[in-house]
Amino acid sequence: MQRTGIATALADLIFNPELDLHEAADRHFAPDYRQRTDGKWDERDGFLAHIAHLRGVVAEGSVDVHDELYDGDRYADRHTVHITKTDGATVRTEVYLFGEFAPDGRFRRIEEVTLMLEGAEADRNLGSAR
User: Fold this and answer.
1) How far is Cα 63 from Cα 5, in angstroms, rounded to an integer?
2) pLDDT for 62-82, tens place per residue?
3) Please, what sign has the CA dihedral across residues 41, 45, 46, 48?
4) Within 10 A of 91 (CB to CB), how many other CB atoms are there?
5) What is the model's pTM?
């Protein structure tokens, strides 16, 4: 099984606007995908609405993975997302993530907690904004 990772998934979803949103999601996330960010659960449709919003406010960015662990169908990492918004503002967020893979190697579930390291107070909810 070839498993996805968070850096590749986020690059396709957020930082590659030429790639269709649904095609990007299908590459990395199972049809029954669920995500909890800072305590709030979203089904796949809610998650895609969030990513569509980000695509509208993010000009460019990158992901630095600091720690990444795979164990069977389980995944954990700590990464930092660096974003430059379309208005020129920058946001830097550290993310602590636990996930589960579907049998085909795509994410089935992610639970994450975010910590904004840099940015305006209005961007504190960027990890779940729509």
Assistant:
1) 11
2) 999 999 999 999 999 999 999
3) positive
4) 22
5) 0.91
